[in-house]
């Protein structure tokens, strides 16, 4: 039986709402209406985490936090403060809280923070409730939340979408999410990689052909555009499409119809086009390798997916997600990861983004003998990102670098990476913030020197 979450909240209605939210997510719970009662509860049973209001009758939430951290340094603590009480929040973070949340508490944020905190402390988590609107997109960063909001906003429209982002950032997954969130969800989703197909085949693959259209065309074949019907056609690596094909695609998009090769019979184009590219397509346009008019046609709605290193808050939930997925797929009992290994995962730059992370987790699960992923198991490049350090099995003692990373990252995310605001939030100077960002690998050595501009 996993350890419960201890909720300390004096407002009865809110307490009941929060308990219901936690229970619905699969967490077991304990409750207390004051700090005094919470301390009594701690004598009865050890929770996995404490979620406490700052303002309580009698002993305050911050005082409770201090007492708890003195007695049980490795017990994670999240504090909730009233809106506008930033000072209280800063005090709580200084006193050792892993996170703070401002009221009114956002359910999604609360659950994400609890999951993230527990996973950092090596506590097993109940399986993620699949929220329908996430469409398999894991992540808690502001970038992912914004992406999900835009997906919901643009999914109902028939407009073409151009997704940009480095390799492995999840462009195809986002295209599928757009499809699933759209009224076309029941229709086909057809993916076509323009880069992986020999030049001469692109046209016949996209438009289809009639029997006898060319040597070897022994039977008629519908193209991807036709197969997608009223659904979505995902054109991956569209930047690699040959120029001659770009002209034909543009014409089809403009006229909303096309013909199979070897016939003049027009076919109506009803599919929504979602294109993606990992190369800088504006550069290709400037260099004459990509038609400007086609670029504007495709780029009606631009969607950019930032690389994983620019949304490090997603790393821990992704690691947990893939760990669960791979263990289940190969029929192994659930595996955990030490906080030290997680810190190394979070510090690494992931040039291959989520695909690289996913593949590494699979390799580590398959090769693992002890049921726990430890820092020593990680490949060399992940060690280099973090510097040397030992492993502490299980939850381990209080993990300072991890906490620092968490606190700094949390403040940056809350302020949309505005360093001045994040510094105020943390109660430190902007220069100190930049030093901390450098310490945890968020800034390069040369970046750390600048202490003037905004950003
Ligand atoms: N936010 C996410 N949550 C869960 N899984 C993800 C997420 N983003 C990407 N993935 C997974 O990572 C892998 C790579 O994603 P995907 O193929 O969509 O990337 P891509 O940007 O299209 O890559 P490429 O440019 O190389 O074609 C897939 O297995 C995908 O399911």
From TrEMBL:
Any one Gene Ontology molecular-function term assigned to this protein's record: sequence-specific DNA binding
Keywords: ATP-binding, DNA-binding, Nucleotide-binding, Phosphoprotein, Transcription, Transcription regulation
Domain called Response regulatory: residue spans: 4-118
Classification of source organism: Bacteria, Pseudomonadati, Pseudomonadota, Acidithiobacillia, Acidithiobacillales
Protein name per UniProt: Sigma-54-dependent Fis family transcriptional regulator
SMART domains membership: AAA, REC
Organism encoding this protein: Acidithiobacillus sulfuriphilus
GO biological process: phosphorelay signal transduction system; regulation of DNA-templated transcription
Cross-referenced InterPro entries: AAA+_ATPase (IPR003593), AAA_lid_NorR (IPR058031), CheY-like_superfamily (IPR011006), Homeodomain-like_sf (IPR009057), HTH_Fis (IPR002197), P-loop_NTPase (IPR027417), Sig_transdc_resp-reg_receiver (IPR001789), Sigma_54_int (IPR002078)
PANTHER family (alphabetical): C4-DICARBOXYLATE TRANSPORT TRANSCRIPTIONAL REGULATORY PROTEIN DCTD, TRANSCRIPTIONAL REGULATORY PROTEIN
Ranges annotated as spanning the membrane: none
């Amino acid at each position: 039986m996993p350890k419960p979450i201890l909720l300390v909240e004096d407002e009865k209605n809110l307490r009941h709402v929060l308990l219901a939210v936690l229970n619905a997510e699969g967490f077991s719970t304990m409750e207390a209406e004051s700090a005094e009662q919470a301390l009594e509860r701690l004598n009865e049973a050890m929770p996995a985490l404490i979620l406490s209001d700052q303002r309580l009758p009698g002993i305050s939430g911050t005082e409770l936090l201090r007492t708890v951290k003195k007695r049980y340094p490795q017990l994670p603590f999240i504090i909730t403060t009233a809106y506008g009480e930033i000072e209280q929040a800063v005090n709580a973070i200084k006193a050792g809280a892993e996170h703070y949340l401002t009221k009114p508490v956002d359910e999604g944020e609360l659950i994400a923070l609890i999951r993230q905190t527990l996973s950092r402390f090596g506590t097993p988590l109940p399986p993620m409730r699949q929220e329908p609107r996430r469409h398999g997109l894991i992540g808690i960063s502001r970038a992912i939340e914004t992406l999900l909001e835009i997906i919901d906003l643009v999914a109902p429209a028939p407009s073409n979408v151009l997704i940009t982002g480095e390799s492995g950032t999840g462009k195809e997954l986002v295209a599928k999410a757009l499809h699933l969130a759209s009224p076309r969800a029941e229709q086909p989703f057809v993916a076509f990689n323009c880069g992986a197909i020999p030049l001469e085949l692109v046209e016949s693959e996209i438009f289809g052909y009639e029997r006898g259209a060319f040597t070897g065309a022994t039977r008629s074949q519908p193209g991807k555009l036709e197969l997608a019907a009223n659904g979505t056609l995902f054109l991956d690596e569209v930047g690699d499409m040959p120029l001659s094909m770009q002209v034909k695609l543009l014409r089809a998009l403009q006229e909303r119809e096309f013909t199979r090769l070897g016939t003049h019979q027009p076919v109506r184009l009803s599919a929504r086009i979602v294109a993606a590219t990992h190369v800088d397509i504006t550069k290709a346009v400037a260099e004459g390798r990509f038609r400007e008019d086609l670029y504007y046609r495709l780029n009606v709605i631009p969607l950019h997916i930032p690389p994983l290193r620019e949304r490090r808050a997603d790393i821990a939930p992704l690691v947990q997600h893939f760990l669960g997925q791979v263990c289940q797929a190969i029929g192994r009992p659930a595996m955990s990861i030490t906080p030290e290994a997680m810190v190394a995962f979070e510090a690494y730059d992931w040039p291959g983004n989520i695909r690289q992370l996913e593949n590494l987790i699979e390799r580590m699960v398959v090769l693992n003998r002890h049921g726990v992923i430890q820092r020593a198991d990680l490949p060399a490049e992940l060690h280099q990102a973090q510097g040397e350090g030992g492993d502490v099995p299980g939850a381990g003692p209080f993990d300072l670098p991890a906490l620092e990373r968490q606190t700094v990252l949390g403040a940056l995310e809350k302020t949309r990476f505005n360093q001045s605001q994040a510094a105020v939030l943390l109660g430190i100077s902007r220069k100190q913030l930049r030093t901390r960002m450098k310490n945890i690998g968020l800034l390069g050595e040369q970046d750390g020197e600048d202490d003037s501009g905004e950003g």
